[in-house]
Amino acid sequence: xxxxxxxxxxxxxxxxxxxxxxxxxxxxxxxxxxxxxxxxxxxxxxxxxxxxxxxxxxxxxxxxxxxxxxxxxxxxxxxxxxxxxxxxxxxxxxxxxxxxxxxxxxxxxxxxxxxxxxxxxxxxxxxxxxxxxxxxxxxxxxxxxxxxxxxxxxxxxxxxxxxxxxxxxxxxxxxxxxxxxxxxxxxxxxxxxxxxxxxxxxxxxxxxxxxxxxxxxxxxxxxxxxxxxxxxxxxxxxxxxxxxxxxxxxxxxxxxxxxxxxxxxxxxxxxxxxxxxxxxxxxxxxxxxxxxxxxxxxxxxxxxxxxxxxxxxxxxxxxxxxxxxx
Length: 326
Fold this sequence. Notes:
The chain is of the alpha/beta class.
């Protein structure tokens, strides 16, 4: 992507539906012109899966921390974490084309941007009541890693500041609010919604302590869907094996576990990337273009619940929103 192309687009957010796709700059994926931001993000994830990369199996490492905006220092959230980490840059710091210019630098010629999404409230007239109401619209803008830029002024000290310090995985489990009972010595890892307990094999049966906690995090994410916690329909509703709610709940648990592994500073070692696994998710994403964005948002919410995290209300403008809710 050239700088000339970026000048017309970066720092500008687009509505969830591109009603005037001809106004979108050429750097946008071609699929964005077909209609929605969901299409853009889903096609990007599908492209990664087709290359054998499972983006939600790539949690950030404690050395770099969460991807965050260089200017605001706010971390990105939800699907944006996986999109940015999949770019494989060492630095966790990102910024828009405009922000790079404001720092006296520029994006190097030929560098490719990464789209990120956020929700913006839009006021409309309710056709039935005639009253105004707000509806959320999914929008997106583009980011560049600082390693894709040149000439940025006064960022060496900023870059050296740790974005986050890892929390011991056992502490994450111990401090979970309203934690379900954890029964050890079971033949497999699972969560029982009816009994509201997590069953786990003994830790010694896992290849590494990290593997044990990755599996436990997965089941604890499931448990957040219980009606006494987040009351998530994909868990509390009647969903048979292989059904759409079942698959969405599994994706939520996988992504949520990745978030928790990131906070714990560990990497998921048991990465499932078999052909059958990849084809299964490819099929799901192609049939439901909203799945990946919605599941990532629910996974972030579940991880926040376990961590007892509270996040302030964010600005709605693209460049001011350093972290996005989607």
